[in-house]
Give the backbone structure.
Amino acid sequence: MLERLFGTERADMEAVLGRRQLDEEMAGLPEHDRVLHLDLTGRDPDEGCTLVPYEKGALLLRTIEHAVGRERFDAFLRAYFDRFAFQSITTRIPGIHWP
């Protein structure tokens, strides 16, 4: 969306800044808080409010887009949003049990 609103140069700059912020934050986090799926059992959910899911998630999406191409990635996103419109979804994958 940034690319469409502000151009490729700005979107690329924001990605670099986001990665820098992620690296700085990760340096101060314990290992178990550096993952996308946090186990907050017995913890205050506010402890999970970090840049990790946002910036790591953005990196993952950019990597997938780069691997499959913009056109296929956009088609996937459209189908994904259509499939899950007006629903709550989670990161839980049936059959996968996180440590």
